């Protein structure tokens, strides 16, 4: 079919090589993103099963009341939440959601990760008290920064557009 101008319609014109390569690589990246999402879902399922088995084992051994054991369970649970947040971020990328939503998911992941680090923080794991203090201050600064980012994102999200 020929248009009135004598040129072939856009659907029949050959695509430039760069456009074809970009389309193929875009499909490839999308497929890898979906594979990554499936992998994170599988990791989450395995982690939940492992956590459940560990809790049952702890109850049977009578160590369920040991604070370090409980902190270990909390650590594992928060790690599972991080996996869920990363999964949701990958899914948001694959669905090409709003950048603001993706940034919010990344901030949530960071907050959960840093809270996890704060919960399992032990000063005895550092060579000197100064090293432990430096790590604690660094964690506090990162958490404060993430909370500030979350606050700014929330406030800017609720501000009416002009």
UniProtKB/TrEMBL annotation:
InterPro entries: P_starv_induced_PsiE-like
Subcellular location(s) per record: Cell membrane
Bilayer topology term: Multi-pass membrane protein
Source organism of this protein record: Halobium salinum
Superkingdom of the source species: Archaea
Residues annotated as transmembrane: 34-56, 68-90, 102-120, 132-152
Pfam families: PsiE
Protein name: Phosphate-starvation-inducible PsiE family protein
Keyword Transmembrane helix recorded: yes
Keywords carried by this UniProt record: Cell membrane, Membrane, Transmembrane, Transmembrane helix
Chief localisation class: membrane
Cellular component, GO annotation: plasma membrane
Cell membrane recorded as keyword: yes
């Amino acid at each position: 079919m020929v248009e009135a101008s004598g040129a072939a319609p856009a659907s029949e014109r050959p695509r430039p090589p760069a456009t074809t390569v970009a389309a193929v690589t875009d499909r490839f990246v999308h497929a890898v993103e979906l594979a990554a999402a499936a992998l994170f879902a599988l990791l989450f399922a395995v982690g939940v099963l492992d956590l459940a088995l560990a809790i049952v084992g702890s109850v049977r051994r009578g160590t369920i009341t040991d604070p370090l054991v409980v902190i270990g369970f909390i650590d594992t649970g928060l790690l599972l939440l991080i996996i869920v947040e990363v999964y949701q971020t990958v899914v948001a990328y694959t669905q090409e959601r709003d950048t603001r939503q993706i940034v919010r998911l990344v901030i949530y992941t960071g907050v959960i990760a840093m809270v996890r680090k704060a919960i399992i923080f032990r000063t005895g794991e550092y060579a000197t008290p100064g090293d432990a203090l430096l790590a604690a201050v660094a964690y506090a600064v990162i958490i404060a920064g993430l909370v500030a980012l979350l606050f700014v994102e929330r406030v800017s999200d609720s501000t009416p557009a002009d």
